[in-house]
Amino acid sequence: MISFFAQYPEYWSDWTARLLQGGVVTAKLSLGGFALAALLGSLLTWALRSPFAWLRRSAVYFIQGMRALPLLALLLALYFSLPSLGLTLSGFEAGILGLGLQGSAYIAEILRGGLDALHRGQRESAIAVGLTPFQAFTAVILPQAIRGMLPPLLNAYVSILKDSSLCALIATDELMLAARAIASESFLPMHIFLLVGLFYFVIAFPLSLLSRVLEKRFSRGRKSLRG
Amino acid sequence: MSSLQTFFGLLPLLLSGALTALEIALCTLVLASIGGLVLAVWLTFSRSRLVQAGIACFIEWMRNVPALAHLFLIYFGLSYLGINLPAWLAAIVGLSLVGSAVLCDIFRAGLQSLHVGQYEAGLAVGLTRVQILANILLPQSLRRSLPAFANYVTQLIKDTSIASAIAVPEIMFLARNLVTSTFQTSLIYFAVMCIYAAMILPIGLGFIRLERHWGSAR
């Protein structure tokens, strides 16, 4: 056990430098994916509430389709089969696109749930006192709905962060690929993959914790039975 | 050769991969359900702080680290320690560990949504703790956990695709091999997506029916 950990000091500076480099790419990848997912997810939510049936229906099909598809299949398809259609993406770009497309389905569900949780009367009374529909949305609906949305949105980001590790399989120089490269050079896979797990954990765990704290705070006053 | 012929020529191989994926998913589902249930019951009824902290650490580690890292850790890491698992077994072990953490959270939420009075009433009429659990608490809590459980099952089938990274011959792995030998990239990935949809959509519908007949919202 002690000899196991004795390996770390020797390689520490080299490993952490390379993993941090990968970590920066992972951060960009996951934040970019989340931003795209939030944008597309908002569009989908808007489409779900549109007066046009065909728009609502295509949004539903898109969401169901994305949820039935493994991210890895999506990433490989984007990376390897788009070039035959004349569009060549780097691993990083394909990664952001894939994470964004799949994430948008989940985020659309979160946003829809958050908006549905508010009573219709909120919007109606805002319009009755003379706000425009846009003002009603930004000044009345959104500030209330965001409280319910924030914890699941944080969880969605954590999922996207974890899923971004799959981009290693389409040759994006992110954290997991850096770890694999080090593992195959050093022949110390156990050490590396524990360390890289810790890297992900250090980012993801505080966010998960924050999500739980917010959820508890926002649901205060709503009584639930607990044994 | 027309692309339709190619499509049907590739299908048998991809379907054999689908079978492997389903086998892995099924084994994982059984192991993860047992693990998750045991952990959830243990966590709910244990008074030992140490046990609770230990299970909490396990859950947080499993849930905040990518599944891919767990698979690499088990497949490459354990072989470094002299334990050589075949790839399919490493995939099952890794996915089961992650799954038991996810399911533990789901089952625990179901258990804790029940009123403590149910437990006390069971004790009052002279049932043992095991009887209370098996006859009163679990049937109700599992019904409440059904929607989240259904989500986990569909997620699990999708996650079997990660096993291709450690060379388990499931759909994604076979698809990537086919792509390098036939160069029919778009066609193959289209077939792969159809197969996943064909596996996942019926299961989703099945769970909706199950919920209607057996779920908590009857």
UniProtKB/TrEMBL annotation, chain A:
**PROSITE patterns per the UniProt record, alphabetical:** ABC_TM1 (PS50928)
Please state where this protein is localized.
Cell inner membrane; Cell membrane
The record gives the membrane topology as: Multi-pass membrane protein
**GO cellular component terms?**
ATP-binding cassette (ABC) transporter complex
Q: Where are the transmembrane segments?
A: 29-48, 60-82, 192-214
CDD domains recorded? TM_PBP2 (cd06261)
Principal place where this protein is found?
Answer: membrane
Sample GO molecular function, one term: transmembrane transporter activity
Task: Tell me which SUPFAM superfamilies the record gives.
Answer: MetI-like (SSF161098)
Keywords for this protein: Amino-acid transport, Cell membrane, Membrane, Transmembrane, Transmembrane helix, Transport
- A Pfam family recorded for this sequence: BPD_transp_1
Residues of the signal sequence?
Answer: none
InterPro entries xref list: AA_ABC_transptr_permease_3TM, ArtM/GltK/GlnP/TcyL/YhdX-like, MetI-like, MetI-like_sf
- The ABC transmembrane type-1 domain is annotated at 23-211
Biological processes annotated in GO: amino acid transport
Report the NCBIfam families cross-referenced here.
HEQRo_perm_3TM
Q: What family does this chain come from, according to its entry?
A: Belongs to the binding-protein-dependent transport system permease family. HisMQ subfamily.
- Function, as annotated: Part of the binding-protein-dependent transport system for glutamine; probably responsible for the translocation of the substrate across the membrane.
Protein name in UniProt:
Amino acid ABC transporter permease
Source organism per UniProt: Pseudomonas gingeri
UniProtKB/TrEMBL annotation, chain B:
Q: Which PROSITE patterns match?
A: ABC_TM1
- Source domain of life is Bacteria
Q: Topology relative to the membrane, per the entry? A: Multi-pass membrane protein
Write down the SUPFAM superfamilies for this protein, in alphabetical order: MetI-like
Keyword Metal-binding part of the UniProt annotation: no
The alphabetized list of GO BP terms reads: amino acid transport
Q: Which UniProt keywords apply?
A: Amino-acid transport, Cell membrane, Membrane, Transmembrane, Transmembrane helix, Transport
UniProt-listed InterPro entries: AA_ABC_transptr_permease_3TM, ArtM/GltK/GlnP/TcyL/YhdX-like, MetI-like, MetI-like_sf
The reply on keyword Membrane is yes
Taking every annotated instance into account, which residue ranges of this chain make up the domain ABC transmembrane type-1?
18-211
Cellular compartment(s): Cell inner membrane; Cell membrane
Q: What is the first-listed, main subcellular location in coarse terms? A: membrane
TM spans (from-to): 30-45, 65-83, 187-208
GO CC list = ATP-binding cassette (ABC) transporter complex
Q: Name one GO molecular function term.
A: transmembrane transporter activity
Q: Which NCBIfam families match?
A: HEQRo_perm_3TM (TIGR01726)
Regarding protein family, the annotation reads: Belongs to the binding-protein-dependent transport system permease family. HisMQ subfamily.
What name has this protein been given in UniProt? Amino acid ABC transporter permease
